[in-house]
Amino acid sequence: MTSVKEQEAIRKLMVFLQEWDSAHKVARSRILNNFIKSNDGKTEPELELEFSQGASLFLARLTAWLRMTYMYSTCLNKLLKSIGIFLSAASGCRYLIEFLEIGGVLILLEILGLNHLKEEDKRESVKLLQLVANGGRKYKELICESYGVRSLAEFLATSKSAEAQEDVQVLLDSLGHGNPKYQNQVYKGLIAVLPCASRRAQQLALQTLVVLQDVVGEVPSVLVEPVLGVLGSVHLEVQYEAIQLLKALMARSVRPALLKGLVALLTPPREKASTFCDETAKDPTTLCLREPVLVYIQQAAAAKAIGVLAKESAEVAEELIQLRAVHGLMVAVGNLDHVASQRHASFSLEYFVHTFPFVEEHVKAALGHTLFQRFMDSPETWYTKMDPVQAEDLASNIVDIPRDTARMQSTEG
């Protein structure tokens, strides 16, 4: 026999559920508002007490309404927040299982791909996916098995909300840890974000790739081209994160390919650097310098990265010399069309000249006494006083340090 008090509590629950069942959209929105205000942060025992041990009956109604209406944005934000109260409830593992049993993960992922839905609704969906991932390894695997990494990577790349992008980063980072079966999939998903047009997405993806290095160990060679590609970003914060990733990758097997690629960026083909885009071909009066600007930005960033990496490791510096980085840096210094290339290349060249005597000899021979002395006296400004003839001499230099010289000199030192 149940007590009078218990009977009254059950009666109230039934009245509440009947009110929900018969309510239209506006009334349900009000019910959700009240539920969120009254129950945010409650534990599973507290929710059960609130619903007379029948909280799952209300959760079932919420999830059923979600399944029917998520494509139409009917109170979607409030609905997701209400479900989040259940999923975040301490000791509420059974709520999570009940949500997953109705295909909750697939619904949340599908929400991310619906263009007509609001960013704030998608962000709420990401938060719920994070709550699912917090359940442990098998739940992370469930998200990944549901093509979650691809959906999250696409949303990160296309979202206009910085807050939503940061939430996605947190989730992808979570999926990359404690999830050995799918950690490489997460890593490749982040690589796929790099060519996107969103600088914030690029920045967050690069940061997360750095964090995941120790987890994934060796990285796929497919990483090389996208990482070198983001060096063409006009945003310095993206370039900075790319260089941080390059530093982290110097201990990996992709190092030779990355260094070779960096050196190649120092000497863009002249025909490519002087061609214009399609709009110029159609209308010669309209100059469109996107292509040359891109290769020059990459040239400057590569010159900067080479200096950073060389200073981090003498072994890397020697490899760069063998790859003809000194020749490439001199070409970049001679680029009168892009002062950033000249500046970064000059600073990096200064390091090689001061660190390796044989490099100093070759550079001095190529520049001539007067120009070399200007370089040594003021590496931060000498290129600003360079005339076109001197610049052309640099751009067409044939400095070629023998491959074994760096290693021999280092051993002797």
Automatic annotation (TrEMBL):
Originating organism: Burhinus bistriatus
InterPro entries reported for this sequence: ARM-like (IPR011989), ARM-type_fold (IPR016024), DUF5578 (IPR041090)
Gene3D superfamilies, per the entry: Leucine-rich Repeat Variant
Protein name, UniProt field: ARMD1 protein
One Pfam family linked to the record: DUF5578
